[in-house]
Amino acid sequence: MLRSLAPLPFRPLWLLLAGVLVVSATLVNYLHWDDRLYYWFKERHLTKGEREANIWLPGYYAALQGKPLAGLENDETSGLTFNPATRTLFTVTGKHPLLVELSLEGEVLRRIELRGFSNPEGVEALGDGRLAIIDERKRQLAAFWLSETDQSIDLRRLETFDLGFAEAGNKGFEGIGWDARHQRLLLAKERSPLGLFSLPFPGEDGAPGKLEPLSPDDLFVRDLSSVTVDPRTGHILVLSDESRLLLELDGDGKPISFISLIGGFNGLDEGIQQAEGVTMDDDGNIYMVGEPNLFYVFRKDTREPDPWQLGRL
């Protein structure tokens, strides 16, 4: 009897340890910490030449952070694009549908009413000078010319394109980016399924081509909130709100580098709580907006980078 009873007090401890291991393994898998560690080591073995040929996000720091966008206190900014024709930025708001033009320093220049839009989530400057907006709830893409005097845009007067995924609800397309090298749009679907899609735009008949998936299985993030294309390298930046990551992909959608948007990394005093839009200008500066109305600028650090420095993760 003594032999059979002796191990009993230790069973709760072993059960607790087993439970901790199971929970830890589940958490690591859910947060993709193993993938992050793998790519962290991989990106830090890039040569100086390879880093210069890429965006190489660990070399960036937050030059401007958490600046409130004046007059948008009660709105939710989402999506961001750099317009090379005006050298300004554009974002959209979902709570009260607006197209908002910003300076590169985050000053609000004008607000344009978006009539007929339900939930605008992404905006992008196209190669021909037009702007394109995606409405997540309506699953529509609309492209239009914007004049300096426009005070409103009416969706009913625009040609729209159905993006499909009728069952997606509020988990549809959130990000949109223009890939000038391949004359295509890149669309980021938030989740269920999560992934990047390529859309030739326009097609030969003037309408969008066929929507095609672009390496969705290699993304170690829990959601996608925005996408943009670096005009210098052709590489892709994808933003994840839930994972609090900015990820660099090559033209085929393969991960190259990333940075964390948690406070203490890359010069961030405080973390970006809900990052919803990212874009780059032709000088390589990265701009970001987060809900409800905060603005960020990341610039390349001109000092010789230490690839093993954790603070640049």
Explain the overall architecture:
The chain has 313 residues and is mainly beta. The chain has a single domain (31-312), classed as Neuraminidase (6 Propeller), CATH 2.120.10.30. 13% of the residues lie in helices and 37% in strands. It contains four helices and 21 strands. The chain has helices at 2-5, 11-31, 33-43, 48-53, and strands at 60-68, 77-83, 88-93, 98-102, 108-115, 120-125, 131-135, 140-144, 152-154, 160-162, 173-179, 184-189, 195-200, 212-213, 226-229, 236-240, 245-249, 255-260, 275-280, 286-290, 294-300. The strands form five sheets. Strands 2-3-4-5-9 form a five-stranded mixed beta sheet, with no helix packed on it. A hairpin with a 3-residue loop joins strand 20 (286-290) and strand 21. The chain is globular and about 65 Å long. Residues 22-34 have low confidence and may be disordered.
- Residue-averaged pLDDT: 82
Tally of individual helices: 4
| Biggest beta-sheet profile | 5 strands, mixed
* Strand residue content: 35-45%
Assigned CATH class: Mainly Beta
**Order of strands in the sheet with most strands:** 2-3-4-5-9
CATH architecture: 6 Propeller
User: In total, how many beta strands?
Assistant: 21
Level of helix content?
Answer: 10-25%
Total domain count: 1
Overall, the morphology is globular
Give the uncertain stretches in residue-range form.
22-34
Instruction: Let me know the CATH homologous superfamily.
Output: TolB, C-terminal domain
Radius of gyration: 22 Å
Derived structural class: mainly beta
Query: What separation lies between the terminal Cα atoms?
Result: 57 Å
CATH topology assignment: Neuraminidase
Helix and strand element order: HHHHEEEEEEEEEEEEEEEEEEEEE
